[in-house]
Amino acid sequence: MRTVEVDLGAASYPIYIGSGLLKNDFCQQHIVGNSCMLISNTTVAPHYAEVLSQQIKIDKTGECLLEDSEQYKNLESLEKIITSLLEQHFDRNTTLIALGGGVVGDICGFAAASFQRGVNFIQVPTTLLAMVDSSVGGKTAVNHALGKNMIGAFHQPQCVVIDIDTLQTLEEREYRAGLAEVIKYGLIIDAEFFDWLQQNIQLLMQRDSEALIYAIERSCAIKADVVSQDEKEQGIRALLNLGHTFGHAIETGLGYGEWLHGEAISTGMILAARLSEMLGLLSKTDVKRTTDIFKQTGLPTHIPNAMTADRFTELMAVDKKVKDGVLRLILMESIGKAVIKDDVSPAQIKAVIETHPA
User: Fold this and answer.
1) 69 and 201 share a domain?
2) Whole-angstrom Cα distance, residue 226 to residue 8?
3) Are residues 254 and 287 located together in one domain of the fold?
4) Is 223 one of the catalytic residues?
5) Which of 80, 218, 261, 321 is catalytic?
6) Reported pTM
7) pLDDT tens across 16-49, in order?
8) For the CA atoms of the chain, what is the radius of gyration?
9) How far apart are CA 216 and CA 127, in angstroms?
10) Residue among 223, 274, 320, 321 flagged as catalytic
């Protein structure tokens, strides 16, 4: 087992990474109070809810299951959790446990931030994307029809328990989508990690345990370091959004769930790399390396037919990264070095979209 610490002073917490962790008492150690509710979905719960519940020895437990899809990451699902907590008479000394992918983790975290003005929660991610991204850092949210993750709060978990065994039941499309977030860390901060990914991408595609544990540990360590410097995304944490402004536009424009998050940001990161080259920031060689690794994973590198340049700019104008009417984009100066740019014009964005290879 590996442990990564998210250093946030009094709000610090560990990330446990390994095999067979659901059969141990890591969650039990971090439950605050004598009651907890397990939040999961109808796909994940039949596989893992019972084995996790067997390790929890407290007076009162409950369970709330959500439907499984990005389209259910909404206020209705949040209300379902809150209603379950109230109907079963849970109080503010309750711990919520999120067992599932990023949708479950985000909704459960937001419910924990909202219920009685805030209760504790634990992240138990079961998808690769959630393990390396959404379960770490305390961002919680639900979607709105007009924009992704527009309703939410920063609320840090008590711990994150990553059992890589859960990836064995993850369908291939979901698994590949998670690799997009792993690759992102190499692109934005760690060129050596990107080199390692290029050399070991086939092992990761085969879900090799040793390669997975290293890739997850390195991804979490990078994110933990960034979050510890900038918890509320006032500066450096924005670098974690490489490709996300383009990607969120695709998710919103097509309808949530049509493209998975990792699929959308795969194309988004390539668009960001090509825009970086267009602006004279990034070399053609690095654009090719960026594109090639996403092609190796089988992730999308094209723009959906339904997404016009005008539709992109319309949706990007309401992105969370717009401040005082100015869109901040995360671009690249080299592999391993991302930068924040707030001087990119809509015309330049349209140009990179209109010239993107089919």
Assistant:
1) no
2) 11
3) yes
4) yes
5) 261
6) 0.94
7) 999 999 999 999 999 988 999 999 999 999 999 9
8) 20
9) 11
10) 223
Which range of residues forms the domain containing residue 347? Answer: 172-354
- Considering the candidates 80, 148, 184, 237, report the single residue annotated as catalytic: 237
Is residue 67 among the annotated active site residues? no
60 and 88 together in one domain? yes
CB distance 39 to 108 below 8 Å: yes
- With cut-offs at 50, 70 and 90, classify the pLDDT of residue 322: confident
Phi, psi angle pair for 150, to nearest 5°: -85, -15
Q: Could you read off the pLDDT of 123-174 as tens digits, one per residue?
A: 999 999 999 999 999 999 999 998 999 999 999 999 999 999 999 999 999 9
Residues 30 and 98 in one domain: yes
Distance of CA 7 to CAs 133, 159, 189, Å?
A: 16, 12, 19
Task: Kindly state the average pLDDT of the residues 81-107.
Answer: 97
CATH number of the domain encompassing residue 119: 3.40.50.1970
Residues 258 and 137 in one domain: no
What percentage of the chain exceeds 70 in pLDDT? 99
Tell me the per-residue pLDDT of 295-316, one tens digit each, with 9 for 90 and over: 999 999 999 999 999 999 999 9
Structural domains of the chain, count: 2
* Active-site residue, 356 included: no
The SS3 of residue 196 is helix
- Kindly state whether residues 158 and 187 are assigned to the same domain: no
Is residue 324 over pLDDT 80? no
> What is the DSSP code string of 51-63?
HHHTT---SEEEE
- Concerning whether 30 is annotated as a catalytic residue, the answer is no
Catalytic annotation on 117?
yes
**Of residues 184, 248, 274, 320, which has the active-site annotation?**
248
Question: Is 233 a known active-site residue?
Answer: yes
Distance, in Å, from the CA atom of 117 to the CA atom of 124, rounded to the nearest integer, reads 22
What number is the average pLDDT over the span 110-114?
98
Q: Which of 136, 153, 169 is the last residue of a domain?
A: 169
93 carries an active-site annotation: no
Tell which of 147, 169, 191 closes a domain. Answer: 169
Q: Is 328 a catalytic residue?
A: no
Instruction: Please tell me whether residues 161 and 198 are part of one structural domain.
Output: no
Assess whether 7 and 151 both reside in one domain: yes
CATH number at residue 343: 1.20.1090.10
